[in-house]
Amino acid sequence: MQVKIACKLTIKVVYSLTNFKEQSIYVMKYAIISDIHGNLEALESVLTEIEKHYVDSLLCLGDVVGYGPNPNECVEVIRDKAEVILAGNHDYAPLGKLDLSYFNPWARNAIEWTADQLSESSKEFLLSLPLKMNLNGFTIVHSTPLNPEQWNYIITIGDAVRNFHEFEGRVCFVGHSHVPMIVSVKNEDYRAIRENPLQIDPDRRYIINVGSVGQPRDLIPRAAYAIYDTTNGTYELFRVDYDIAETQSKIIQSGLPEFLAERLELGQ
After folding, report:
1. DSSP, residue by residue, 192-207
2. Where are the domains of the chain?
3. 19 by DSSP, 3-state: which?
4. Contact indicator for 225, 236 with CB cutoff of 8 Å
5. Does residue 197 have a cis bond before it (omega within 30 degrees)?
6. How high is the pLDDT of residue 18?
């Protein structure tokens, strides 16, 4: 991935809701991905496309593992490629950090399988991931800026309303639902935004879901990734074809639930 040095930004890394560690990096143009879910074919296709954008930094919003057949490989790739990686609930669950009764039977089966597959190196890495980060002008989190450890979803405008007061800056990027979505507010005027690409209005604030790399659920099977360019204030969501049949074959051969293979071609 080609990196170009730009303006200096300060990052606050949130290891808990009260603990901050500051560091500085040079970035302007971001690729943002989420919910890889052990789908190596989708991840590799997305990274190939991202390289064409010459971004300064790759951000991953969590759920590197879970559901898919290549958890260790995805951890290794994203650990090497991403500047910033957050924890998702499927990253914590195989490590015994979450109550599995929270998950549906297919997810629970996949979590138990993933727990057996993860190397010690992968486990240590996933344990180290933070829940939330505040960058200069925007925030990233897997679930919600309000109580991210509760793993709630933002899937309606009402959900977004409850979260706008919980982050700094103009934009908060989220994942978790696997469904791309944009909600914007100005003077209590809340709107669902459908423009893509989107010119960020400096007078409005935004919560943006960047969709899923490895298991899209918006009835579009293609992997999703986003580009956020702070130099011109633009955001764009992209979709990428990948070898779904190969991932499906791996899922079935691994003994994971066949439903997890079937849903990939349906985008749900």
Report:
1. E---SSEEPPTT-EEE
2. 27-266
3. coil
4. no
5. yes
6. 29
The rounded distance, in Å, linking the Cα atoms of 175 and 30 is: 16
83-to-24, 73, 78, 206 alpha-carbon distances in Å: 12, 17, 9, 23
- Whether residue 107 contacts residue 67, with contact meaning beta carbons closer than 8 Å, is answered with yes
Per the listing, tokens 């992209």 go with 238
Q: How does pLDDT run across 150-169, given as a tens digit for each residue?
A: 999 999 999 999 999 999 89
- Percentage above 90 pLDDT, the chain: 88
In this prediction, residue 28 carries a pLDDT of 87
* Residue 214: HSE in the Cβ half-sphere, 13 Å Cα cutoff: 32
DSSP state, residue 201:
P
CATH superfamily assigned to domain 27-266: Metallo-dependent phosphatases (3.60.21.10)
Burial class (CB in 10 A: 0-12, 13-18, 19+), 260: buried
Query: Do 126 and 75 form a contact (C-beta atoms < 8 A)?
Result: yes
DSSP H or E run through 190:
strand 189-192
The tokens for 160 are 């977004």
Residue 72 burial (10 A CB sphere; 0-12, 13-18, 19+)? middle
Q: What are phi and psi of 19, to 5 degrees?
A: -105, 125
